[in-house]
Amino acid sequence: YSEDEMMETNKILHQEFQNKVMQNSETYQKMLEERQRLPTWEMKDHITAAVNRHKVIIVSGVTGCGKTTQVPQFILDEALSSDSFNANIICTQPRRIAATSIAERVAAERDEVLGRIVGYQIRLEGDMSHLTRLLFCTTGIVLRRLEGDPNLEGVTHIIVDEVHERSEQSDFLILVLKRLLVRRPELRVILMSATINAKLFSNYFDNCPVINIPGGIFPVKQFFLEDVIEKTRFNYEDKTLEHCSEQIASDEIPDSKLSKYQLQLRYPGYSFSTINTLDKMKFEKLDFNLIAHLLEWIVTTQHDELPLDGAILVFLPGYEEIENTYSKLLDTEEFKENKDKYIIIPLHSSFSSDEQRSVFHKAKPGIRKIVLSTNIAETSITIDDVVYVVDVGRMKEMSYNHSRRMKSLDLIWVSRTNAEQRKGRAGRVQEGVCFHLFTSHMYKHILRPHPVPEIQRNSLEQVVLRIKMLSVFRGEDIELILQELIDPPLVERIHGAVQSLKEIGALDSQMELTALGYHLGSIPVDVRIGKLILYGTIFRCLDATLTMAAILSYKSPFVNPFKKRHEAKKMKLILSEHSSDIHTMLRAYKEWWQARDEGRAAAFSFCKKYFLSSKHLEMICALKQQYVEILSSIGFIRKGIKLKDVQTSATYSSDGVALITGKKVNLNNENNELLSAMLVVALYPNMAHGEIAIFEIDSHLTIQSNDIVNIHPSSVNSEIVFEIGSFLVYHEKVRTSKVYIRECSLVSQLSVLMFAGGCIEVDVSKDPPLISIDDLIHYKTTQLEVALSLKALRSELNQL
Ligand code: ADP
Ligand code: MG
Fold first, then answer.
1. Which of 211, 242, 251, 686 has its CA 20 to 30 A from that of 110?
2. Does residue 124 come out as left (phi exceeding 0), alpha (psi in the -120 to 50 range) or beta?
């Protein structure tokens, strides 16, 4: 929009605001009263004054005090009351679900329709217009915008919310903003954080002011696992313990390593049955029976010390665990018999905003609200009426898995900061109670004090691509840029990321971004998985590659029961396909899908027969859906396409999918050779070479003669002796008694030649010249079929 048009709309918005305040609209007033009760309101003038005076400020306060909903409005309102209204505020959120629900809330507080002055934008979705002056969006959206608009033209204020979470994107955005302030001194940056580490950010911005919002939460009683077992008599067993003479164990030894007697010394005053149960549980696995048991106890027992009414918030690590708890809960007597007395709401970032909305509604009298949530309810979303928190103490965290050379989502123990934060959620409106399902010892001595910033856990590939995509960094040294981060990564890690980006062809030898690199930088998945799904689209075998991608980033659908290992292997071999574990899994997935068409019972018995986990299969299915959305967000496939298994209601046919060119094509090729080529795409340089023993080969396809690897006994390939010249790609290398490659697939030399990385070594002698794959293909196209052995091909080329 032209400047004139903007000024014209600004005038209208200013007038509308004046009218609204003057008219005393009833909704607006009612909301205003609510807003004025928030602790942040007290600091209104203080905050706006500081924003006017300083380029950067930090606002910190306990979760729920009103930072996210109020601070952007303070700035907007102050600007709106001037005749020369000219503000354009962006507020970033780490999660999609927060961006939408907060925009909705803020629009409602202003008695406005969403998409006018208050809007939101997240990947694939948004509601905004030329009137929008306060935009809530994900951090990724701003990073995307910076590509084409490095100065954020027209933006007057940028608020970065939840900076304490230390997400990779938010750390990076803060770096970019620090530089941008030099070019745009009139820009205002506001960082908002929970009460932890505000000082860190203030130091980063030359000791900029920190505004602390006073006021806290009501006291919350804290109980640990031993109390939960004692109180609820979980697994009650009345065995007596002999008295012990053992020494008290050192604090560094976790409970799970202690004998019963040592446990008793560590937890004096607890009953024998509690000690027995603690000893039996070993704390390693999440115990859904215990969670259900505790919830049933909370709602059915009369407690002197505990409040009676109010919602219960259960923190669980992820989707699967939410589902498990849900079904366990419905199986308990209390919930079976008194269904109407409860409303159980799952809360997960993948749910639509409609589904989420119900968590904010207060339950009717006599009805108990139970929210089963991931850690999004820790800081992003505040549910007011919570008085009980059940914290299972785990969360999912993305980290780099070196044996897979891939990012993976792992289940880990929360940090003390997370546990504290979770506890605080029970004290919003009155005193509350928190049950942690880990022991007090664990809390004090074993849990990490703070979560590890994402940028320190992850591989840096995505960040490096991001830097390459932003024109402001053009020509600069990546290492030097990354040293400007709040927590600069080690130089070796930066080199590792650059090396791996070159290997997969995202950066060329000149360190320039390739087309592949550009697309990989635009999608929020591991770069190898990203490459696989992009290639899958181009080579029109999308459905199968999506299944592969899901399997590679999640896990195998096959289970490996300890006691029935041999039987499981036998059944797996029946499904064996193309000397490849992944092809075998693809087949298992496909046949499971067909069985599912016949009904749940058929699918169940199929899983049972072949030792497959239906949970894993369902998860693979859900991941495929996510990848479809990602691909359509960058225009690789048409929006709204549905694959046959991704959504039950939808049908997929060969003309159901079209490339962006508009030409209808079949994306469903299932040619095994093609699919094994896709595996080279995804897994290179995780490759091994068959030659009596199997040798690992490095990223230039030279054999590391000493690195003998073995095929894991669970693989369909474990009995096969591979010929000289054969290539295997593998998913994961583990070192136990020997070095094993776990899941592996035989791939053709042709696919190695064509798809293994961007460069291929031609000369096996010292000082090898590199030749690009394009040159190679160009030169060899006509002779490829006869060049069956890569070695032969190599020596042939050597003679040139
Ligand atoms: P903070 O950012 O400091 O954690 P928020 O601004 O998110 O706090 O929330 C302030 C208050 O607004 C909370 O107490 C919460 O009850 C209320 N609130 C936020 N979002 C909604 C919503 N969608 N529906 C109802 N109330 C909400
Ligand atoms: Mg907030």
1. 211
2. left
